[in-house]
Amino acid sequence: MSFLKGIAASSGVAIAKAYRLVEPDLSFEKLTIDSFEQEIARLHASLQIAQSELEAIRDKAREELGEDKAAIFEAHLLVLNDPELVNPIEEKIKAESVNAEFALKETADMFISMFKSMDNEYMKERAADIRDVTKRVLAHLLGANIPNPGMVAEEVIIVADDLTPSDTAQLDRNFVKGFTTNVGGRTSHSAIMARSMEIPAVVGTKNATEEIHNGDLVVVDGLKGEVHINPTPEMLQSYRAVAEDYEKQKAEWAKLVNEPTVTKDGIHVELAANIGTPKDLKGVLDNGGEGVGLYRTEFLYMDRDQLPTEEEQFESYKAVLEGMKGKPVVVRTLDIGGDKELPYLNLPKEMNPFLGFRAIRLCLEEQDIFRTQLRALLRASVHGNLKIMFPMIATLAEFREAKAILLEEKGKLISKGIMVNEAIELGIMVEIPSTAIIADQFAKEVDFFSIGTNDLIQYTMAADRMNQQVSYLYQPYNPSILRLVKMVIDAAHKEGKWAGMCGEMAGDETAIPVLLGLGLDEFSMSASSILKARSLIRTLSKSDMEKLAEEVVAMGTTEEVVEAINKCLRL
Description:
By secondary structure, the chain is of the alpha/beta class. It has 22 helices and 16 strands. The chain has helices at about 35-65, 65-80, 85-95, 100-115, 120-140, 165-170, 190-195, 210, 235-255, 280-285, 310-325, 360-365, 365-380, 395-415, 435, 440, 455-460, 480-495, 510-520, 530-535, 540-550, 560-570; strands at about 1-5, 5-10, 15-20, 155-160, 175-180, 200-205, 215-220, 225-230, 270-275, 290-295, 330, 385-390, 425-430, 450, 500, 520-525. The strands form two sheets. It has an eight-stranded mixed β-sheet. An eight-stranded parallel β-barrel has the order 9-10-11-12-13-14-15-16, surrounded by four helices. The longest helix has 30 residues, at about 35-65.
C-alpha cells in the first residue's frame, strides 16, 4: 500500500477501484511489416472496437442529453465508416509495407490539413471529427484506452491531473464515489463540483496519476485530505467504520432538514445553496436549503459547441424558480473567463485570464450574448422569486451600464405585452477589493451584495488560487479579508440592504462563527454543507459571536484569528 497527502476538498470517505481520467501515451514508431493482411486485420479490429464505443456513447448521449448532443457522435460514426478515409489507409499499408499506426496517422493528418485549409466553416469542423475518430482508433491499435467519464458503469474513484467543469458535469454520481487530483485547492471548480455532487474529494496530491493505476483499490478520505492506495485489510476495515460513522452523523444532521436556521439566542439567518444546473435542485431541497444564493449560469453555456438559445435559458431559469416554490433564487449572469472557457467564442488568449476579459466585462462588450440572457431571465421572473446579480463588478459605472441594459430589455418585453416580475432585486458580486472599499457608495444603488470570497481572497492576497506554490496565501480568516467583509456588511445594513456570501467561506465551519458575528444575512454554500452549518449555528449565540468578530478583526494574523475562534467554540 501507499499513501498520498492532499487537500480535503469535499467531506466523506469513498472506497472503490481507480479509474484514471488521463490521456494515454499514443506515441509509436514507423515499422516495416512482413504481412500487410495481418496489419489490415489489426486496423479493422481497432475500427470495430471504436465503432462499438461510439455507438454506446451516442446512445447514452441521446438518452441523457438529447438528439443534438448525440448528433456529434453520429457524425463520428460516419467518419469511421467512410471508405474515403479507410481505403487510403489500407493502400498505404500495402504499398509502403508500413504498420497500421503510421498509415493511419499519415492519412489522418493529410485529411485534417486539407479540411482545415478550406474556407467553408462546416468543412473546417470536419477536421476535428477526423482527429477525434482517428485518435480513438490509434489508441486501440496501441492497446490503450481513451477515458470517458460519462461511460463509467461501475463504482469508481476518478483519478486525474485536474477536472474541468465539463469533466465534472459528465460524472455520474451513481458510479463515481469520489475523486482525487494532482492539482487544485478547496476553491478550484473540481472541488466545488465535488461538494455539489456530495462525493468525497482530495485535490492537490501532486502525483496521484503517477502513483495510482487503473483498478487499484483506493480510499479517498475527504475528511483528512488523504488518499490510500491498495490499503491493508485492517486499514480497509477501519475506513469502512469511519465511513459508517460519517453516514450516521449525516443522518443526525438530516433531522434538521425542515428546521429554521436560528441561533441559540433566537436570531434567524438564511442558509442557501450554490447550484450549477436545474438538476442540482434535488440536493438543495433534500438538504433543507432556504433558497438558491448562487445559480452559476455559465454551466448552460459550457460543454456544447454554440451559445444556448434564449428559449433554452428561459426553460432552465423557469425550472429552478418553479422548483424553489417562491423561495429566493439569486441568479448570477454569465461569468466566463479565468478557468472557465467557451472555445466557440474564440476569445483571445490572455497572460492572466483571472484579471482579464471575463464576467461582466465580456458581457458589456458582447451585448448580444448579455441581452439574450437578460431577456430569458426577465421572462422567467414571473415563475418565482428571482434576484439577479452581476459578477466581477469593479466600478459603479459597470453596474450602472449593466442595470441600464437590463431595464432597456425589460421595457422592450413589457411593450410587447410580455409579463415581467416588478419585484426583481438587483445586486452585485463583491469579488474585487476596490468594490468592497467603496461598498458604501454601491449600497446606495444596489438591492443586495453577495460576497464572492474565492476571488476576493485571491485578489486581496495577490495569490492565484489555482497555483499550489502560493496556496498558503489562500487565507479566508486573514484579518484583511475579515475587514473587507465587515465593510461590505456594514455598508449594506446602513442603507437597509442585505448582504450574503456565496464563496466557499460561507460554508466553512471555522469562518461561520465570525461571519455570524459580523452580521452576514445569508450564507450560500454547497447543498451538502447546509445541514452541517445549520447544526453549528444552532449552538452559537449571535451576541457572543459579535464580541468574537470585534476581537478578531483587530488582530494581525490568520493564526491568531483561528486560535481565538477555536478558544471561543471550546468555552
